[in-house]
Amino acid sequence: MILITGATGLVGAHIALQLIEKGNRVRAIYRTTSSIDKTRAYFDYYQKSALFTQIDWLEADILDIPLLEIAFENVDLVYHCAAFISYDPQDEEQIRKTNIEGTANIVNFCLSKNVNKLCYISSIAALGDKAPHENTISETTEWNPEKPHSDYAISKYGAEMEVWRGQQEGLDVVVVNPGLIFGPFIKTITDGSAGIYHKVAKGLSFYTMGSTGCVVVDDVANIAIMLMNSEIKNERFTLIENNYPFKTIFDAIASALKVKKPRIHADPSLMNIIWRIDWLLSKILNKKRQISKATAKASSSKNTFSNEKIKTRLDYTFTNVTNYIQTNVIQ
């Protein structure tokens, strides 16, 4: 039996689909019945509705020890995809508790239940910080605790420390660090990177000159499964197809949706104004933040990530992100 946490999210749903297509038995945990609808929507999108019924769903939470005890019965492999994603500083406590403590729980159960191997879906946010002499960020780039990081980045880094602690205690693990992940555009799904599609569809006016590593969800799921089925263990891998300016991504989505492309350049000084306005509105209207100081800074950062390690180890060819957007972002 293969257990997937976070199977109601983009990556977890695609891992579940690929595993079932290969004839594997899959158990997936969920917190709310409504969240399962997102996974069903992905299966329906690929016209694989019949396969959706093969998932063994179990209500549980990675912070709920008694329910995890049940979830781990007869489990051989674990894909830990569950995470709390937010860039609102007010969510700091929940982010760290879910992502770090929750991962510690998964690791502890893997150890106590003698699970054969754990795959942890991390993030490029948990990779290190470039030193002055470095041009790219890779698996060996060192994390600098003196540098500013978002609460989300800190939580994913802390979660990785729990995974490596498990490895030191005898658990076989692989860690993947995907960049910004793109899946199909499904109108009923608005969280995660899908939110970018909806913002552009509604007429996103601003763009920044920042850039980041991007990857297609099918590649993340495929590589995770390949690593779990291989002899590779106790290593981490950066998963990106390429490094893209945000404007290139926005323009590709706008072109696919046949809407106006963002046309106003939001330089760092304008972004500083925007995040302050957003903070003020969140206080006045009592709503969640849409952009924080950290995300405003990140939107103008030009980070370059290397995917050479995974390309070399698996001889893998990634799907071009902009081409994928053109064929999967349709109304």
TrEMBL record:
It comes from the Bacteria. GO terms for cellular component: cytoplasm. This is NAD-dependent epimerase/dehydratase family protein. The lineage of its organism: Bacteria, Pseudomonadati, Bacteroidota, Flavobacteriia, Flavobacteriales. InterPro entries: Epimerase_deHydtase, NAD(P)-bd_dom_sf, NAD(P)-dependent_oxidoreduct. Pfam families: Epimerase. GO terms for molecular function: aldehyde dehydrogenase (NAD+) activity. Residues 2-230 form the NAD-dependent epimerase/dehydratase domain.
